[in-house]
Every structure is written in structure tokens, then in C-alpha cells.
């Protein structure tokens, strides 16, 4: 009997399960195949039961996906997935677990079941209704042996105005959630939270679905008329005391905005002091090229000394210039997810000349890699997505004894699976002896807010954090629609934000 280590119950031996996926061919999705593959990789035996005749997918969803196809969107996995190559499972013996993907009602049989939950319902129509009305649906897993449903997660939606792409994002994350729930079953646990959730279909979302094509078309017209584009900008202030990491609140004001020429935006600010001088590093994205580089500017007694000048440029998009000192050297790890590598650069002539020193990770697209030392080891945090999933809602960790590596992935990756509090948002800091990390709040959209998280556990056995507060833009402290980076050094505190500008 193969023994596996289930996520969430590390060190507890778990049995291999006979798992049956119940699928209505009319509701088959590409992510169902991804789920089957994930379960098999975990050592479970998987069989498919085709069960036609369930609740029919509404014509409204097909109409919306067809409209998106006419506007050039790539085909979504929500358009259907053929299962002609799948033979129904044989034998009458009940499986150890059934994962019901049909969207139908459950009978009273004692069979252990799991099912995906979309926005408080068992079928994806509820999610579509919420998406077309401007909402962002939560998702989770229903367990027949639990009195309550689990806490619902905020999935990252990288194109919430595209219904097909959003359904792909939801499905990719549901595949992970269901596979982890199966591991919990294998270890003798349940997938349950503290609060009940009514999964009875309601007239509210059914009525919303009836209007979904009209709402979708109206939203596209309004987006075309607005033609707004996000314009990020960096704020800085002198703060030897009363820092955000001390007060856990945005100050009432006092920010100065790093000027730009209107032909570019600045974001992802990091500050570093060397030889009595303080330097601000930023992502510098010229609109003419659409490909960012890393620039730096000195912060003098009267503020920035001139405009930021380029210090590192490659043939891929660079951002998030994580600058730090270690082993008598100054290092930078810029985000270079487009090359599917995490690269370490050494300052040859700080701050203007950097040389490539090592590739820390390859073959994986990591967003906003951030390193911290804890308990004598180095830990690298970064967000990871996939072809169908956003990178805003999945936090991964790697560890190493040396900066150059090798870096080993954590056994429970992704250690955080939620758009609220996953993606890194700046360097770690310590407060009252505890380790803290800034994280992005992407539950309402990319970079919508800043979550300040106290690290409760960081070791080989697991990772846990508690979100103590979430800071949002739009008030007197920081106007605009976004806030997603926080750093401090040498008495200078920096953040960034977003406003809408004409294209």
C-alpha cells in the first residue's frame, strides 16, 4: 500500500483511496482532468463515472462565452471538455470517496462525498451570476462528513471582466482545493470550518444569471468608453518613528509622490542605504515598450536627486527590485517571471552596475521573490501561478542554507491559497520580537490593498500567518485605487499606489 503525506497533516501516514469522479458530460471541464491527474500523482486510484441528466447548463453561459470568442478571447476550459476516451468505472463496490462534479443534489447514502462550492452554490452558475454583476465569487469544498463548509477562499482573477478566463481561474484553484480535501480524507480528517453555509440554490442568483448576457455586454461597452489604464506611482516620506509597521495604519498624510514624465509609471519601491546615502529602487515601465526595467534615484535631504535612472535591464520584464545585504555584498533579486527563473544579482558598483551571480530557481514563474533568515535558515517566499490560474493567490516557500542554493520547495506548497494575504508586498520586518510580512490584498483585484501579516509558524512542518490588518487606498492617507508595496530603510518609508489615467 502506497503511503502519502497529505497537505495539512504532514507526518501523518495516510492510506491510498479509491476515488470516483462523478461527471456530467454536459458539465465536463478541463480542470476536471487536472484534478484527476493531481489525485493520481498523490498516489490515489481514480475512476470516472459519467452521469448525464443533471441540471442543464444555462444558455446564458454559452452565449457569454460565444461573445467572448467573437472579441478574440482564447477558448476557455469552461466551454466543455470531451470525455469520449474515458470508460465508466466498473464494478459495484463503492469507492472510498466520491468527488461529485455534476452539480446535482446529494442523496442520503452514507458514501463519503466532496463537491466544489461556487459563491454559495454547488454549480458554477452562481459564480457567473456574481461575476457579471461585478462581484468576485468565493470558492470552497463541501464535505459530506462535515457539519459546516470550510472557510471560503478568495481566488485570484487576473481578468475579472472575462467570464471564461475567470471560470478557468476558479477551476484551477478548485482542483487544488479538492485534491487537498481528498488528502485530508485519506488521513482521517474532514474539510470543515466553523460557520454553516446554505447551499440551497436561491432565486437571487438565478435571476442574476438570466440577466448575465446583458450585464456582460453593458460592462464591455462601459469599459470601452472609459478607456482607463492603471498608472502606478511611488510615495515616500521621512519616518524615523510612526512607521506603518509600528502603527499598523496609514498616516493621515505626509507622502510625497516620486515624479514621472507621464510616459512611464513607477512601482514596487525598495530603499537601501549605503555609505551615508539612501537610494530608492523602483520598477520603471515605459509605456512605449511595455517592458519594465529597474531604475534607481538617490533620496537626498531635499528629496529625490533628479529622476530615476536605469540600473538593470534585460530582454524580459523586470519588477520588484528586492535589494538586500548579506555576506559583505549587496544583492538584488528582481522579479523576472517572464524568463521562468529567479536570478540573483550582485552589485559590482553600487547602485548603478549589477552582475548576474546565480540562478536560484528555474523552470517556474515566481512573482515577487522575497528572502528572510529565520532560525538559522534562509526562506524564499514568492507567488506562483499557472496557465489557468492567477499568481495572486498562491504563496510558495523554498528554503536553503546558502544564498546561492540549492533551494528546496516546502512540502506544503502552496502554503497560502487565497488572494488575501498570499503575494509578497515588501521586505519582512520585526515587531515586538515577532516576524511580520507585508502581503498583497488581491481579493478585490490586483494590488487593491496591503495586508500586514504576523508569522505564527515558519519551519519544515508548516507555515502559518495571521492577517492583523488590511490597509486600503482611497482615503486621505493615500488616494487612488491601489496599494501593494511597503518598505522602510534609513528613516525613509515608501509605498506605491494606483490611479486611473487615459490611455
Supply the helix-strand structural class.
alpha+beta
Strand content: 35-45%
Looking at the structure, the CATH topology of the largest domain is Tachylectin-2, Chain A
In DSSP terms, counting alpha (H) and pi (I) runs of 4 or more, how many helices? 7
Largest sheet: 5 strands, mixed
Helix fraction? 10-25%
Number of domains: 2
The parts where pLDDT drops under 50 for at least 5 residues are: 1-13
Number of strands: 28
* Fourth-level CATH superfamily of the largest domain: Glycosyl hydrolase domain, family 43
Per CATH, the architecture of the largest domain is 5 Propeller
Distance between the termini: 60 Å
Q: Which shape, going by the Cα principal axes?
A: globular
Q: What topology, given as strand order, has the largest sheet? A: 2-1-3-4-5
The CATH class designation of the largest domain is Mainly Beta
Mean pLDDT: 86
- The Rg value, from CA coordinates, equals 24 Å
Question: How is this fold's topology laid out?
Answer:
Elements: E1 18-23, H1 30-41, E2 45-50, H2 59-70, E3 97-100, E4 113-118, H3 125-132, E5 139-143, H4 163-186, H5 203-210, H6 212-226, E6 228-238, H7 244-247, E7 256-257, E8 264-274, E9 277-286, E10 293-300, E11 303-304, E12 309-312, E13 319-326, E14 329-335, E15 341-349, E16 353-362, E17 366-374, E18 377-384, E19 394-400, E20 408-409, E21 416-417, E22 420-424, E23 429-431, E24 434-441, E25 449-459, E26 462-472, E27 482-489, E28 492-502
Amino acid at each position: 500500500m502506497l503511503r502519502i503525506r497529505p497537505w495539512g497533516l504532514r507526518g501523518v501516514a495516510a492510506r491510498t483511496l479509491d476515488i470516483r469522479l462523478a461527471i456530467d458530460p454536459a458539465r465536463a471541464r478541463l480542470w476536471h482532468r487536472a484534478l484527476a491527474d493531481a489525485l493520481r500523482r498523490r498516489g490515489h486510484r481514480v475512476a470516472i463515472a459519467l452521469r448525464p441528466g443533471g441540471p442543464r447548463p444555462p444558455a446564458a453561459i454559452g452565449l457569454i462565452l460565444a461573445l467572448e470568442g467573437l472579441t478574440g478571447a482564447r477558448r476557455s476550459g469552461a466551454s466543455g471538455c470531451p470525455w469520449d476516451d474515458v470508460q465508466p468505472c466498473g464494478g459495484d463496490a463503492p469507492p472510498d470517496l466520491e468527488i461529485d462534479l455534476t452539480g446535482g443534489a446529494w442523496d442520503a447514502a452514507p458514501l463519503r462525498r466532496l463537491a466544489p462550492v461556487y459563491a454559495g452554490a454547488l454549480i458554477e452558475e452562481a459564480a457567473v451570476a456574481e461575476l457579471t454583476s461585478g462581484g468576485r465569487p468565493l470558492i470552497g469544498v463541501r464535505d459530506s462528513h462535515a457539519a459546516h463548509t470550510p472557510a471560503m477562499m478568495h481566488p485570484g482573477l487576473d481578468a475579472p471582466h472575462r467570464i471564461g478566463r475567470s471560470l478557468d481561474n476558479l477551476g484551477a484553484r478548485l482542483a487544488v482545493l479538492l485534491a487537498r480535501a481528498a488528502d485530508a480524507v485519506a488521513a482521517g480528517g474532514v474539510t470543515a470550518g466553523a460557520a454553516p453555509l446554505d447551499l440551497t440554490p436561491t432565486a437571487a442568483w438565478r435571476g442574476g444569471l438570466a440577466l448575465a448576457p446583458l450585464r456582460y455586454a453593458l460592462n464591455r461597452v462601459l469599459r470601452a468608453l472609459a478607456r482607463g489604464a492603471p498608472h502606478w506611482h511611488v510615495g515616500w516620506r521621512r519616518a524615523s518613528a510612526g512607521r506603518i509597521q509600528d502603527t499598523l495604519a496609514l498616516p493621515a498624510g505626509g507622502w510625497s509622490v516620486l515624479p514621472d514624465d507621464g510616459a512611464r509609471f513607477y512601482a514596487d519601491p525598495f530603499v537601501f542605504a549605503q555609505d551615508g546615502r539612501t537610494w530608492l529602487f523602483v520598477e520603471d515601465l515605459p509605456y512605449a515598450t511595455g517592458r519594465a526595467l529597474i531604475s534607481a534615484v538617490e533620496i537626498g535631504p531635499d528629496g529625490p536627486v533628479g529622476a530615476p535612472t536605469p540600473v538593470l535591464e534585460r530582454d524580459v520584464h523586470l519588477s520588484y527590485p528586492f535589494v538586500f545585504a548579506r555576506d559583505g555584498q549587496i544583492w538584488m533579486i528582481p522579479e523576472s517571471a517572464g524568463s521562468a527563473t529567479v536570478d540573483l544579482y550582485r552589485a559590482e558598483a553600487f547602485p548603478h552596475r549589477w552582475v548576474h551571480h546565480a540562478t536560484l530557481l528555474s523552470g517556474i514563474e515566481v512573482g515577487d521573490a522575497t528572502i528572510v533568515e529565520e532560525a538559522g535558515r534562509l526562506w524564499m517566499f514568492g507567488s506562483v501561478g499557472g496557465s489557468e490560474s492567477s499568481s495572486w493567490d498562491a504563496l510558495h516557500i523554498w528554503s536553503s542554507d546558502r544564498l546561492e542554493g540549492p533551494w528546496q520547495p516546502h512540502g506544503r506548497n502552496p502554503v497560502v491559497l487565497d488572494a488575501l494575504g498570499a503575494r509578497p508586498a515588501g521586505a519582512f520586518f520585526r515587531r515586538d520580537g515577532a516576524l511580520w510580512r507585508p502581503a498583497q490584498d488581491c481579493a478585490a483585484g490586483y494590488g487593491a490593498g496591503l495586508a500586514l501579516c504576523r508569522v505564527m509558524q515558519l519551519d519544515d512542518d508548516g507555515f502559518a500567518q495571521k492577517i492583523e490588518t488590511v490597509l486600503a487606498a482611497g482615503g486621505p492617507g493615500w488616494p487612488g485605487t491601489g496599494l501593494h508595496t511597503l518598505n522602510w530603510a534609513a528613516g525613509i518609508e515608501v509605498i506605491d499606489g494606483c490611479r486611473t489615467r487615459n490611455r
